[in-house]
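Quick question: what would this complex look like in 3D?
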Amino acid sequence: MKQEFTITIYTENQIGLLNRIAIMFSRRKINIESLNTSPSEVEGIHRFTIVINEDEDAVRKIVKQIEKQVGVIKAYFNKPDEIVWQELALYKVATDVIAEKVVVERLLRQYGARAVVIRKDYTVFEATGQREETDRLIEVLGEYGLIEFVRSARVAIIKNSKGFHEKLKEFESLQPGEYTVDSI
Amino acid sequence: MSTISSTTAAATATATEIHTLSGSQAVLEAFLAEGVDTIFGYPGGAIMPIYDALYDYNDRLNHILVRHEQGGIHAAQGYARTSGKTGVVFATSGPGATNLVTGLADAMIDSTPLVCITGQVFAHLLGTDAFQETDVINITTPITKWNYQITDANEIPAVLAKAFYIAGSGRPGPVLIDIAKSAQLQKIEYKGYQKCDNIRSYRPKPVIRKEFIAEAAALINQAKKPFVIFGQGVILGRAEAEFKAFIEKGGLPAAWTIMGLSALPSDHYLNVGMLGMHGNYGPNVLTNECDVLIAIGMRFDDRVTGRLDKYAKQAKVIHLDIDPAEIDKNVQTTIPVWGDCKDSLPLLTALIEKKEHKEWLQKFRQFEQDEIDQCVYNELNPTCEEMTMGEVIKTLNELTGNDAIIVTDVGQHQMVACRYARFKQSKSNITSGGLGTMGFGLPAAIGAKFGAPERTVVTIIGDGGFQMTLQELGTIMQSKVNVKILILNNQFLGMVRQWQELFHDHRYSFVNIESPDFVQVAKGYGIAGRSIKQRTDLQTALKEMIDHDGAYLLEVFVGKENNVFPMVPQGCSVAEIRLK
């Protein structure tokens, strides 16, 4: 059964690694729903957050293949209830509409949106939250002439992770090249 | 003078004594430090600085000029497979690099250690569609274990050290390093070469977990019908002796994939034959009867397993592999044994009980007898007028004392060669297993000979595959490579024809390939040869080929529409193997 998985990959910060990871999915005709790269809690180590819809067995296999790539240190996969996640969305609306309609202001407050830029002609709001929340604000603002909308990729924290510092220490305690395979 | 005596550069360079070298020289110094002795390559614009530097290293690095880059990389594969070392290839940018693609894919799927160096346009021209510029890094990403582009020559020593470490360690594979021409020309302060043995984000050595070894041993000890299936992992791990000790103590019948062929001598009493689509009757049928299946250094390819949902469902599966991603990939494992089988097998051997499993082994021999009666005997001792591929291989075995290196191409002759060639020592069967690359045979044989110069190298090729890379006859001529070329000519693209006969209602669609006079072609390259059609000539012609001082081409016309049997039809279970 296909379901949503969030894959977290700790890697070196190297040119070409994004492609090497992305083609693991395209080769298997798996669509990437969302992809984010960022620094991690450990200096010099990058963190990919990738969201896909697949069955668990396929995800487990692809995560092993990803982990095998040179440049990848460790990869995890989690179901939605195992992570805390957020996405950020930006909305551009005409400033005169906002100024005129009190209801818009109330709505924005209700959805926790805040103004990032206010100009004479337009205002940009930002909202952070889960998909349903940022989606709902599109619908609502649509009625008041939403000019532009963009949403970021997902960022996610794994609830039961002790952070990557521990994992790195574990690696460093092993002989060069050694690796203890987790029974996943 | 800017070029220092390069012999001593690596040896004497220390922190206090720094030499200036070009990027190109640094590449060749890396080769020397890694023990490279042979390079297969083809020059071109973007790799000219390296070739210029090579001019001064000619006494220490033997460069073989091939006729096509695909030939170069297949030769390096052949070299790697017979020598156990990493094969090295040079190619220029653009078409030179793209011509490596088939060989990279082949080496990737067959786990062959290679370091390929491609030239690239000047760094400042990257992305400008410069002459012979190709994005070789992105083209080769899915078919390399690792690849990297160098635009600063200061990176060369460390990157090459990484390349050799990655190519040869863990589950080996091809590495491609793309070096901008500007970096080849760039002068660097050379601080010497340090081999690499550790990369934070590359963990090729899974730790062997003792608890799983114990569980595996317990399963084997309880087993009534244990069955070992092994692949190239035994050869790549140099674990032939450990493997033999393991199966001998446990009395475990063992069957091989074509990549594992020659790891265990053909006449070993526990060697029960070949797995898979054209493998032996017993090993295929009894895969679905064994109670414990012990897979060692193999990856359950679909040509080995047949239909997966009917594969060994009754058995508990123990899988030994150095690549954790192979465990549970195709077949669900009961007990995973991660690690290098060179280390894990002795641990397992120590814990298993000495047993013989005589009755169970006897069962394999009964199936073998059935196979001989119904299929093998006629293939090896035909009464028909036309010669069979099998009898050619049988005669070759006799004349070489089962001790030649056999390099095959892809197709019917490959399956027949793997089925009937006999081997005494490991690293003797070189074939394109996973990718099934027609055209592999001839260039791979060239490399195989350089990798094992003291041994007889016979390449067995079909009339189709030979025409894919026959330009390498030029390499054989120029470098005086003593390889024996045995063309089994059935005047068809035989394997496809067989499938068309069996599964496409005899509709022979574009399989009737015509060939030139191969002996005349060879003669044009100064290579001796002969073509035979009569069985009465077979023995003497093969002997003439083997005894000839130098390369020799023998074309043997065989039955046009012979089929390879047994056969597990695609989509069928291994138990549904057909003997005719």
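Answer marked as accepted. Residues 358-380 of chain B form the longest helix (23 residues).
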